[in-house]
Design goal:
It contains 2 helices and 14 strands; from the N terminus they run βββββββαββαβββββ. It is mostly beta strands. The chain has helices spanning about 85-90, 140-145, and strands spanning about 5, 15, 40-45, 50-55, 60-65, 70-75, 80, 125-130, 135-140, 155, 160-165, 175, 180-185, 190. This is WD repeat-containing protein 49.
Length: about 190
């Protein structure tokens, strides 16, 4: 029987069985909810790997047979935000448009979560937050061969591409700044510069 997986604002993975009579979610995903914010991207690698990336910057690789976590990754890339109050919006410093050359662009964020009109370049009461994972892709040939010490997962976070080895939960194996993953087709991974 086929299963459909859905993710989103509730930070959970929902499983739907392909039944003729009804379409309703199964009981909760056994792996729990390690994400602290919306899951905004996912990718599947046959026969049983699922990767989810969230707005809080966490990437989780799952085994879909056991519904357990295989690996977790979080880059050290962070963005500096300040959500402005109505008093701050009236101040002269808030009249400057956000910098178009900012390397941590908000273009990777979903439209419903963009804060570009409420962003300051520098602020005294700002907070550091992890950059969202806006796209992730398995390098499927390497995953199937269980290649260790090689990149098996690529994530796009804040205009940077990170290359991870999902068989070891260590730091990223590589980083390419100013890239955005567009798609993965066969043996090729397409980036925009």
């Amino acid at each position: 029987m086929r299963r459909f997986l859905a993710t989103g604002w509730n930070r959970q993975i929902s499983v739907f069985e392909d039944k003729e009579a009804q379409l309703s979610p199964e009981p909760a995903w056994a792996g729990g909810t390690p994400h602290c914010d919306d899951i905004i991207t996912m990718d599947y690698c046959s026969p049983y790997y699922l990767a989810t990336g969230s707005f809080d910057g966490l990437t989780v690789v799952w085994n879909t047979d056991t519904e357990r976590i295989v690996a977790q990754f979080r880059s050290q890339l962070k963005r500096r935000d300040q959500i402005l109050t109505s008093a701050t919006l009236k101040s002269p410093t808030s009249q400057h448009p956000p910098s178009a050359t900012n390397s941590l662009s908000t273009s990777s964020r979903p439209a419903s979560r963009r804060l570009s009109s409420y962003r300051l370049k520098s602020a005294s009461s700002s907070h550091l937050h992890h950059v969202p994972v806006d796209k992730l892709l398995f390098l499927k040939t390497r995953v199937k061969s269980k290649a260790r010490g090689q990149s098996t997962l690529v994530t796009s976070e804040g205009g940077h591409a990170f290359f991870w080895d999902m068989f070891s939960s260590g730091p990223p194996l590589g980083l390419c700044p100013s890239l955005r993953i567009l798609s993965y087709c066969g043996r090729y991974c397409f980036f925009s510069l």
